């Protein structure tokens, strides 16, 4: 048994509801073979820790008589994920088909210093174990930087602490942020699974083998890093008392009980210790919880130059994480502002005399740089300086935290005063989708954030499985949030294949409830007041003002109903909210929309019901690792299209237009934010089914994510992604429903393709194939443009009925 | 136990393969309660027998203290189906959860005289049982008309036989063919389940209740029929010896062993007596077996006037059952013709000097009259006489049987001499889809017959579940057939939802086999002869001549391979057939294509592979009883659209055209057989995916089926069903791929709708709704035509690559 109290058990969950769990004694471990070396590694997603550990297993397996084993535990964050590697080595076959338990590890490595504040990284360590920390601090200062809880655990377990500035070593060796070679060398040095000299030889051989394809320089850099690692490894002196600051609480005490009892412990890594009864009985989790995570994964975050800023809000609209925000407010709102809080006069007649601030959320920004890349306001005298620059977060952290906290408290703008069919003004609306676990620079999440801004607490989302269901419902937290009234979007994910059917069910339910509510209101009309009833029944709610008025009428209605003692009054009271117009959306990726869920999508479109469908089109199965979908463009590489996709991209927009009564828009935020916002607003207002196909750049394309919006623009400029809106309401007046929103292609397809690995890798591996396929892709574009152009020029007769 | 040897057991199938069946003693029945009355009725599908029996159960249940029970056994023929009703009545609760066993029935009724020759209708009868026959013969002649086997059974079991000319009684009472009231009255008279007077009262009450909505006249007619029934019921005198003719064998002795051992017994109704080992181990059943059934369900069949005939072959192309056929042949083929065999000089330069015959299959014709209704050749002096008239079959039966048998023996025309892109000449090709169990006058089967004629033994069909899988694979027989070489279409049905995926699998397999065969042939090129190998590899096989040549080359190749002793030669020998081009089709109804299988259909289209899809579009789920599909037109009634379908028909053709690389055709045989044939030929030749949407009139539309082809024409004339072909090969030359094959609407939609119950029933029940929906349907048509017209006028640039 361990010397520390064993609060968390790594095996088994206590089923205190159905009582199906087996009883077990946490002190009666069977993982006790003293000849087995157990090692646990905390890595940051994509920092190379898992790969290096697999390499380590291979070296030990091949160079010694040891048996080896590895388990790798991932979370599902796309950016800043945590990976925990559990490795065992021993002279006999290893049959421990489970993770390393608390208090059993001989060796623990923490590859990122931020984990020290967030996780109980020492809980696996057994008494006397060796602990390796990657920290920037000198060895003598390491102990004092540890939270008091960890200090106490070091003392209690008499742990041996070692420090290495792996990031510094890697940087100096020319390896950038890749610390895996450095940490691996230190592991072999400290763990002594193999004799020192043999281990070093083996690492060196492994480096030569792994990197020789990348050239002699890379091999030399890695070999140098091994030497520098051993030179830089320092023993950490351990004082006799724990006098550090307590670990900051992840969850403030003022949070609701569920968050304190469930969300907090799961965030801290203790989810397995929660009993089954802690889970919500109907699966409903509170929203607005991603903000609790404060993952602080960026080293550099945007800094605002209020003088240079032209207040276009492009930084905010492209931000995938709602980590840079705009508010417009009265000067009075600045009462009590922190000293460093900056603001500027709002430039624009519609909110004349007001102030504006662009504020970063320093703990939530992922450092993707999209905002800086789209910022059009350059300093003419110093072109590298823009109204938004990336600068190191460390020195600004405390100040920006305080500023952001104050910023959040500034009152939201009156929604009815905002003309939302305008890209800039859309950003004055509060985002109710924030701080998701999507990749840094994600091309999908800006569209979801925009949805949440435009339709706010009227929004319902049925989400297909895929990236958007992962970062959208990465329990225990969710980026879907709520406003100060406690209202916000309702969101759920059923399966991969049934999102459209699931969302159509939302709509049918809303419609049925509204029908019943209207009938009840008609029946009760005289009793609640005919004027009020008529006003409620007549309200169309196509803008924010009408919507707010309807909300007020419903509040009024509720008051009147409360005074009535009839079953009808009770029933109407219970569904009166259905008289407020909802914005019902079905959201998914192209794998869902073009392939797996297409039958249902078509059924929802054909239904004629007021459902809105948003396709986050990355042209590939992103979440599962890059398989070809029917949206994948001709000539692109993908899994199952290893020689380039031979067939044309399926044109789901053209297919939807063939339904006649479907509003269809193809948008790309990076090419036209104005057209994107307009399409979203029109889709919501259109009383039938709507389909928005939204171009979403993606890491799977093989590009520099900071340039994501530029790639979106190139996709439009070359004609691969024409922008259009097809609005059937125009038919009534005899207008052509199709409006082209982008111009004829102005650059060749090849100019777009050459900038993305998905295309140019094929050019390198099979130049002839790539050339042929790209020529066909160009022909696809030319033919499609020819058809679109002539479709948009067709003549129509006014309709007599609709 | 019964007095006759008990050959067939009605409970349990002998599992002699997995030995999972329980042993049982057929003589140890538990269904022995002597107070229970057991009655078995053999009815003809839709003759009202099942409905009348349900009525009978209700009467007995309500008017007596008896407990009642009914089981109804249907086969899956759409026309001429057999229904067997098993009824039990008794003073105690009936717990016999199984059919009435052989030799247990107190009462047996045979509602159609033809069953006497086909089925062992007396096997359920117990000794001394009462048997009621609906026959036209006088009572004294009935016994002599029975097959000898039945005569013997009557004598052995000492059965009491009663005869009624129910058809005559019903006809004279003005009930047409509906014999159910007559037979029901006779059952009550003979079975004595209730006292006679009470029973008659109950029947009369039931008639008044059931028919009062249809008016007083119908009630009176049925009441009169009851009296006439009792008056016409005669006891059949039974001689002492059985001297009739033996029952004709269903299966000729020269048939193969499987047919004799399995197909024959199942056809005779003894399927349950076959052991499991009799079933084909891989589920493959022999084709060309529907011809064994010879169901003879028509009273009147077409008669040809060779003088009047203009030889357009429209009678043959519209025939749903391949029961009227055309051949062109040399005069020498008439050697040994039966005396009455008729022929005429072929009118047409391409087969000058040859003779032609149009021959009916008298046992297989369903009497639907489609052929007569489309026949354009009228006798000017007597307009009701056409080149094809319906005349009673009975007097012509022997002669026409002989003629049809001789006709089948006339050599088939040389396929390479037939220009198949011509409707008339397509009918000179042998149909390999014949005598299906589809409804009389079916609008779907002519398309399948045409497929089988055009692509013959190169045809593979993956069939979705629906009408076409039921009549297509109504085991133990199938209408899919084979030619004199023993070659014919291969056909299979997987599920409702996966036909496109299933058929795409056929295609991928064919393509892969062809790829392997080509590679092997290239490797073996010198050994089999370079000229032969090159000719095989170069062959494109886009017409019958090339196809025949390739077949000959493959025969030659096989000979050469046989002489080679290498593994590659063996392998190529095994897949050499893959070098003959196949015509791969996916077939299903609109429920599959528009709804349930649409995701897969889209996937097959997007694949770019050479699959051909034929949608037999009845605009409703026909097989399951008339549920709305997305193909159902606006304003039509259907299940789930009880107030008329409010939304427009989904335009699957327009959707498919949005794929660009898909050949799409919309056809209606009744509007243009020429365009239909052309579309089929082009779809087969097109090297990518093809979709043919074929208008199929259906009993579910509520029309006189004999006018089916006229309704098809009206659907086209009013613009509801525009004819077109979209051929992407035209793009290469810069031609518009879309060709409109029908003219602008020339009659209003309402003129079409008023002739079909699916529309006009709504006009009767909700005239305002019907008017509004029909006006919207008219608007749909106008807008769609406007778009099609302008699409067909678009300009294109020639392609540089493809």
What does this structure look like?
The first copy, chain A, is of the alpha/beta class. In chain A, helix 16 (499-523) runs parallel beside helix 22 (598-606). The longest helix of chain A has 26 residues, at 767-792. The first copy, chain A, is globular, with a radius of gyration of 29 Å. The relative contact order of chain A is 0.06. The model of chain A is unreliable at 1-10 (pLDDT under 50). Chain A binds chain B through residues 595-600, 602-603, 606-608, 630, 646-648, 650-651, 654-655, 657-661, 731, 772, 775-776, 779-780, 782-784, 786-787, 790, 794-797, 799-802, and chain B through 595-600, 602-603, 606-608, 630, 646-648, 650-651, 654-655, 657-661, 731, 772, 775-776, 779-780, 782-784, 786-787, 790, 794-797, 799-802.
State the gist of this model:
Chain A is an alpha/beta fold and 802 residues long. In chain A, the strands form five sheets. An eight-stranded mixed β-sheet of chain A has the order 16-15-17-18-20-19-21-22, with helices on both faces. Chain A binds chain B through residues 595-600, 602-603, 606-608, 630, 646-648, 650-651, 654-655, 657-661, 731, 772, 775-776, 779-780, 782-784, 786-787, 790, 794-797, 799-802, and chain B through 595-600, 602-603, 606-608, 630, 646-648, 650-651, 654-655, 657-661, 731, 772, 775-776, 779-780, 782-784, 786-787, 790, 794-797, 799-802.
Overall shape of chain A: it is: globular
Give the strand order, joined by hyphens, for the main sheet of chain A. 16-15-17-18-20-19-21-22
What is the CA-CA span between the terminal residues of chain A?
77 Å
What is the average of the pLDDT values of chain A? 93
Structural class of chain A: alpha/beta
């Amino acid at each position: 048994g361990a010397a520390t109290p064993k609060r968390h058990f790594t095996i088994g969950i206590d089923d205190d509801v159905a009582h199906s769990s087996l009883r077990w004694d946490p002190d009666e471990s069977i993982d006790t073979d003293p000849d087995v070396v157990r090692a646990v590694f905390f890595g940051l997603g994509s920092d190379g820790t898992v790969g290096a550990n697999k390499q380590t297993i291979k070296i030990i397996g091949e160079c010694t008589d040891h048996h080896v084993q590895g388990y790798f535990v991932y979370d599902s964050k796309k950016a800043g994920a945590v990976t925990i590697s559990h490795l065992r080595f021993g002279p006999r076959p290893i049959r421990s088909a489970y993770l390393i338990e608390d208090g059993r590890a001989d060796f623990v490595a923490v590859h990122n210093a931020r984990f020290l504040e967030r996780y109980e990284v020492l809980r696996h360590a057994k008494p006397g174990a060796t602990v390796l920390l990657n920290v920037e601090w000198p060895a003598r200062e390491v102990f004092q930087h540890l939270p008091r809880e960890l200090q106490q655990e070091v003392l209690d377990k008499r742990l041996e602490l070692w420090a290495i500035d792996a990031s510094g070593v890697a940087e100096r060796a020319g390896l950038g942020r890749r610390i895996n070679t450095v940490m691996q060398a230190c592991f072999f040095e400290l763990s002594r699974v193999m004799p020192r000299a043999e281990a070093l030889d083996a690492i060196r051989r492994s480096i030569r083998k792994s990197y020789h394809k990348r050239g002699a320089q890379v091999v030399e850099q890695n070999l140098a890093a091994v030497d520098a690692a051993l030179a830089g490894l320092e023993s950490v002196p351990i004082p006799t008392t724990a006098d550090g600051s307590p670990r900051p609480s992840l969850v403030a005490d003022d949070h609701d009980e569920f968050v304190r009892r469930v969300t907090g412990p799961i965030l801290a890594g203790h989810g397995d210790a929660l009993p089954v009864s802690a889970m919500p009985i109907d699966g409903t989790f509170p929203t607005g919880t991603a903000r609790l995570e404060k993952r602080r994964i960026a080293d550099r975050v945007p800094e605002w130059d209020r003088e240079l800023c032209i207040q276009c809000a492009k930084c905010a609209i492209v931000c995938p994480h709602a980590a840079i925000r705009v508010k417009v407010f009265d000067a009075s709102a600045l009462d009590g502002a922190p000293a460093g809080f900056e603001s500027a006069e709002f430039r624009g007649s519609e909110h004349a005399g007001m102030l504006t601030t662009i504020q970063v959320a320093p703990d939530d920004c992922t450092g993707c740089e999209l905002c800086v890349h789209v910022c059009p306001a350059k300093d003419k005298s110093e072109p590298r300086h823009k109204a938004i620059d990336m600068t190191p977060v460390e020195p600004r952290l405390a100040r920006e935290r305080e500023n952001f906290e104050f910023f959040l408290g500034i009152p939201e703008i009156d929604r009815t005063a905002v003309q939302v069919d305008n890209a800039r003004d859309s950003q004055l609306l509060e985002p109710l989708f924030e701080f998701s676990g999507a990749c840094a620079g994600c091309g999908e999440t800006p569209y979801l954030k925009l949805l949440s801004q435009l339709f706010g607490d009227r929004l319902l989302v049925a989400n297909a499985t895929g990236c958007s269901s992962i970062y959208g419902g990465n329990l225990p937290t969710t980026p879907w949030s709520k406003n100060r009234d406690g209202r916000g979007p309702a969101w759920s994910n059923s399966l991969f294949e049934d999102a459209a059917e699931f969302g159509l069910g939302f709509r049918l339910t809303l419609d049925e409830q509204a029908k019943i509510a209207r009938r009840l209101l008609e029946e009760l009309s005289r009793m609640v007041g005919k004027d009020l009833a008529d006003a409620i029944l007549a309200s169309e709610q196509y803008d924010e003002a009408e919507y707010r008025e309807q909300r007020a009428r419903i509040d009024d209605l509720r008051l009147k109903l409360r005074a009535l003692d009839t079953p009808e009054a009770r029933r109407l009271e219970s569904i009166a909210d259905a008289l407020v117009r909802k914005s019902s959306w079905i959201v998914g990726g192209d794998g869902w929309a073009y392939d797996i869920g297409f039958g249902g999508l078509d059924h929802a479109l054909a239904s004629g019901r007021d459902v809105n469908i948003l396709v986050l089109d990355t042209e590939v199965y992103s979440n599962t690792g890059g398989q070809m979908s029917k949206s994948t463009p001709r000539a692109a590489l993908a899994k199952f299209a290893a020689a380039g996709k031979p067939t044309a991209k399926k044109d789901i927009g053209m297919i939807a237009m063939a339904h006649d009564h479907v509003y269809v828009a193809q948008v790309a935020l990076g090419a036209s934010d104005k057209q994107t916002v307009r399409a979203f607003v029109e889709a919501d207002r259109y009383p039938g089914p709507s389909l928005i196909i939204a171009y979403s750049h993606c890491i799977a394309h093989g590009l520099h994510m900071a340039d994501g919006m530029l790639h979106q623009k190139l996709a439009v400029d070359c004609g691969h992604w024409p922008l259009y809106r097809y609005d059937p309401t125009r038919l009534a007046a005899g207008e052509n429903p199709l409006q082209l929103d982008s111009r004829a292609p102005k650059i060749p397809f090849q100019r777009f393709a050459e900038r993305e690995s998905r295309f140019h890798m094929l050019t390198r591996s099979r130049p002839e194939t790539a050339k042929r396929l790209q020529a066909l892709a160009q022909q696809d574009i030319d033919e499609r443009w020819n058809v679109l152009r002539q479709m948009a020029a067709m003549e129509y007769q006014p309709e007599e009925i609709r």
